[in-house]
User: Fold this.
Amino acid sequence: MSIVSRSSQPFEGQKPGTSGLRKKVSVFLQPNYLENFVQALFDTLPDAQGKTLVVGGDGRFHNRDAIQTILRMAAAHGYRRVLVGHGGILSTPAASCVIRKHRAEGGIILSASHNPGGPDGDFGIKYNIESGGPAPEKITDAVFTRSQAITRYRTSDAAPIDIDRLGMQRLEQTDIEVIDPVADYAALMRECFDFDAIRRLFASGFRIRCDTMHAVGGPYAKAILEGELGAPPGSVVNAVPLEDFGGLHPDPNPANADDLMRHMAGPDAPDLGAATDGDADRNMIVGRGFAIAPSDSLALLAAHARLVPRYRAGLAGIARSMPTSTAADRVADALGVACYETPTGWKFFGNLLDAGKATLCGEESYGTGSDHVREKDGLWAILFWLNILAATGASVESLMREHWARFGRNYYSRHDYEGVDSTAADRLMAALRARLPTLSGQVFDGRRIVLADDFAYTDPVDGSRAERQGVRLVFDDGARIVFRLSGTGTEGATLRVYLEQYEADPQRHDIATQTALAPLAGIAGQLAQIASQLRRDRPTVVT
Ligand code: VG1
Ligand code: CO
Assistant:
């Protein structure tokens, strides 16, 4: 075997979005496409000599081949050691955990997360830095720039590594260590939560249905919930990772996880329903006939954090993405800690967590996490809920209702217009931006706009700036409408419209979410001219 240099040519558009580079599988299957991107990454990073790299993915179609490509290139670039998940499997939070625990230089995660998989689906790649968190824009921008100038890549012509055999193998001068993908992560979960209390909860007859949607969460949930905590066998369903996720869309929301919703609505519903996404960093929590909004979940976890061993001493602060509801802000206020508002995407939480400014973070898109790793973490959130349920003896619904009674309810919904024409979507956003200077003070449907801006963020730790992160309208009663375009889609554009309205009165906490938000949705449609601009009379997904 030997190290070889092969010629290549730049591909257009290798620009990472909200979370890594995501494209159709057919795009990634073009000869040299992945190689170019990895070369651009290695060219951007400091010298690899003597360093450790972590590699793993969510098991979707092309995962195994892509891992072999990366192992050969990592060896050709002189990494001393590469840790790769058995079978090529590492959930996103587990990869973050392994990077931190083994003091790796960074890690490559192969995942398009919540996007559909299979030969006709999506593939993705992202790089996480030594903190275990997604690379900041400074790095992803540099990788993109470099990708535009690639003329060669360096690899090895060695035979494939057997990634189904645990233990050490050698590729050129590099030690390739195939590791158990669950062990380090499970050990960390044991440190975070009161496993004894959760064990007693299950022993008392408490039932969970955890739907891992034939994605990478399956092995983790099986090992921890059923294996360690004593949830009855069969509590974790759709637990075997499949290359096409069994045709499911591994995006845990009430629309895609409809099977779970049906089970939770039935007369014999379990006590807790939960689902995770393609790379197991997202979570959905459902009580009996009662879905929890992700923004509410963040707020509730924050309010009860002291019941959990890892957070016994309290929270340093809370961080949420800008479109996420302000429910968490009310808890931060009550706790007397800071609440940070960041752009969409987990990479913006990294500095706050590293600096000890925030302990819990969350996004409205079914993402919650903490400083235990530097990614959102689906199973961690499920265990957090289990820990609270065990400590209080309450039900999911009663916990949420008590929370609303104390803090008020932030009615919240996201309306997605998927796969719309990109030019039309850009035009809609440009028109909104152009109107911003005149919107403040205007009254719509009896509500006055008190703030209209295009969200920009200055990182309080390193001063880096992120601009044009979404059009935000705040009304005099605290209601908000946010418009932004998705940065993870692979077909056309997706407009996301986020709606939020606060209600303090417990007598008014039982309104159907879409009914409560209908007036705001009307204002949003009118302001952005959604129907005429996008030629859509309703959103494709409402969560
Ligand atoms: C979406 C979500 C965002 C999340 C991102 C990655 O991004 O809105 O909150 O961080 O996906 O999640 P966008 O740009 O499409 O709105 V994951 O689980 O797909 O890595
Ligand atoms: Co994900």
Remarks:
- The first strand starts at residue 3 and ends at 7.
- Residues 18-19, 113-114, 277, 281-282, 321, 344-346, 363, 365, 367, 486-488, 496 surround alpha-D-glucose-1-phosphate-6-vanadate (ligand 1) (CB under 6 Å).
- The first helix runs from residue 25 to 28.
